[in-house]
Amino acid sequence: MKNGHPTAYITGIGLVTPIGVGRKKFWDSLLANENGVGYITLFDPEGFDVKIAAECTDFEPKDFMARKIAQRMDRLAQLALSSAVMAVDDSGAREFLDQHPERVGSVIGAGTGGVMSFDRTQWEMDNKGVNRVSPFAVTKMMQNAGAAQVSLQLGIQGPSVTPSLACACGTDAMGMGYDLIRRGDADMVLCGASEAAITPVTVAGFAAMRAMSIRNDDPQGACRPYDKDHSGFVIAEGASVIVLETAESVQRRNVVPYAKITGVGRTTDAYNLTDPDPKGREFGRAMALAIKSAGLQPEQIGYINPHGTGTVAGDGPESWAMHSINPSVRVSATKSNLGHSLGASGAIETAICALTLKEQTIPPMRNLDTLDKDCAPLDYVVSEALPLPTLEAAICVNTGIGGHNAAITLERA
What we know:
globular, twelve-stranded mixed beta sheet, alpha/beta, two-stranded antiparallel sheet, single chain, 14 helices, Peroxisomal Thiolase, Chain A, domain 1, about 35% helix
């Protein structure tokens, strides 16, 4: 409790991303401004307008689970479980989990569910007949597969939730975990999100919406948040899970947190099913609510990791929303490095904010050469990491198709 406001401490971080697996590799790659976008290999993109994506090429499920267990999961659940295993190990929480499983919760979001398995099941039906469909088809495809497998494989018996607010669900998962902690429903919560949606149907669908960049000749320069040449997002896959704990649990276990979550804000545009509100009002209000619930003032926010997908419709409104919060705030839109992992984005970006506060260093973004005339003049951290020893508070904020906005406030522990 801080000045009457509840607090949840981040004590473990697990990541599977296109620029690295594991907290250390990921953070080193991000500070070096590496980029994970390349040509699609998870399916043959011949005939597609979009031929680029950010894939987790270094990920091996066998590093985190038995082969038989991995075979019964969609890639989405494999990414989620692997991140959860890393987060628990990073926090040193296995003993507590084993002794008090009923006091541990899991909130693992997913924007699309097991779409790879859906595609595979349809292929089996079309080519082999309905009697050849796998008995694990449904448990691979279901939206809650990540949360179910994390709870099952790690023995978690507390509350389990799967938020599914499209591209806002990773941030919303963090807010839900924070809610469980501050209500006293759990002493420890594994929070995160996973996405593995680089499939023909998903890519074709987003391409038909004209939301994706077709800058196929320059994969690493394709995602350009706030730049005058922004042309759409680059689809990615990935997952992140963090361990959230009460202050009492942190004290009892004598662990050193990365950061703490102190506020959450959620709003809905109610404007358009796919396009964001051109004034960014509810996007800004989500941040304002997160700041208020943390008991802070807007000028205390020193860093924002925004949605920042590189779309013409989204970049301008959200940049001005950030400007309304704090015109001097530092901003880095790390989807320029990682691509847009849809529902997993907010979970990965929460981990980035926690590491930023812990290390007192803001990671850079890529591809912002000339600010678009419709975007707000902010202190964008471009090309090189920025040491900032005075940084005390940050915001992670995302928006999802349907007009869902979610923001969380993090503070230095």
